[in-house]
Design a protein that fits this description.
The chain is of the alpha/beta class. It contains 11 helices and 11 strands. 48% of the residues are buried.
Length: 317
């Protein structure tokens, strides 16, 4: 069972916000993992569970004014638009930069006229050569970048990081299962190659743990670079099955590889220590619950409330 704490970490409620992704309600990568929950129900349940922000899912309105009205009604903000980068594929570099520009434009339009400190960060992950979208064994087929690919990735991230900074936005890199930046050593290399002024780290607790890493050790090493956090839990027994049975990322999700903080079935119990590390680094920004689960097997509102209750208790809010 995940340990609780009575110590209130010093994360200011007016500068740190709890968000949640719609992947509890449907999956944005694998569209068959969906029981038909509409956008309105999803965001209403997010607000009902006590969250203040959310990432953008494929069922969201594409008109920024319509989206603002829907979220404002529920006192929700966008915590993060997502861009999959492809800097390790030279022919896709400009396409990636254009997509970043489009997302920055969208967020400026979404936030227009809304005076609120809860601004969105730009979240990216390198999907060049990634296997997580494919029906292949996840762990044996993960890409390994050569030196030229690492250099191309770092240069591309520095370029779009500067674009984001110049428009008042933080670019946060999300290490991800099935990609070339998955394990702790690859995160270390990315941090060493990129400009700390424009490329920040999104720490995802479960993606790192499932890849064999230690989220606490990584958090201590890169505390000053962490500007966005995905608080995700994992089920160790499912991770072992993914390895043993050669499952794909999609099969792992369907089997329940991920869950939320506060779920007794989860294997990560270091959230109190992580919050203390973030407090020591004077973290400000989004703490986002993410758990790609099949809503037919895991009631989204139930799990959203489990996570929200646990984290509000942990944070002393």
């Amino acid at each position: 069972m995940i340990a609780m704490t009575t110590k209130a970490p010093k994360l200011p409620k007016d500068k740190v916000w709890l968000g949640v992704t719609p992947t509890l309600w449907w999956n944005d990568d694998f569209l068959t993992i969906d029981i038909g929950i509409p956008f309105g129900q999803c965001v209403s349940e997010m607000a009902l569970a006590g969250f203040k922000g959310c990432s953008v899912g494929h069922k969201y309105p594409t008109d920024p004014k319509v989206l603002q009205a829907a979220l404002r009604l529920r006192d929700l903000r966008v915590s993060e638009p997502w861009v999959s980068t492809y800097f390790t594929i030279e022919a896709m570099k400009q396409q990636t930069i254009d997509k970043v520009g489009a997302q920055l434009d969208f967020m400026e339009q979404f936030e227009a006229g809304w005076d609120d400190p809860r601004r969105a960060d730009l979240v990216v992950a390198e999907f060049g050569h990634a296997v997580n979208p494919l029906p292949v064994a996840l762990f044996p087929n993960c890409p390994v970048f050569d030196n030229a690919q690492w250099q191309a990735l770092a240069e591309g991230l520095n370029e779009i990081g500067l674009l984001a900074k110049n428009r008042g936005r933080k670019l946060c890199y999300h290490h991800h299962l099935g990609t070339g930046v998955m394990r702790s050593e690859s995160v270390d290399r990315l941090m060493a190659l990129t400009d700390p002024d424009v490329v920040h780290l999104l720490l995802d607790t479960a993606h790192l743990a499932a890849a064999g890493g230690d989220p606490i050790a990584l958090a201590k090493k890169h505390a000053s670079r962490i500007k966005h956090v995905h608080l995700k839990n994992m089920r160790e027994k499912v991770v072992k099955e993914v390895h043993a049975k050669g499952w794909s990322f999609e099969q792992g999700i369907e089997a329940g590889i991920f869950t939320v903080p506060g779920d007794p079935d989860g294997s990560i119990n270091s959230y109190p220590e992580l919050i203390d590390i973030l407090a020591g680094a004077k973290f400000e920004g989004w703490l986002v619950v993410e758990a790609e689960q099949d809503p037919a097997k895991a009631n989204p509102l139930k799990y959203a409330k489990i996570a929200s209750d646990y984290l509000h208790h942990l944070l002393g809010w």
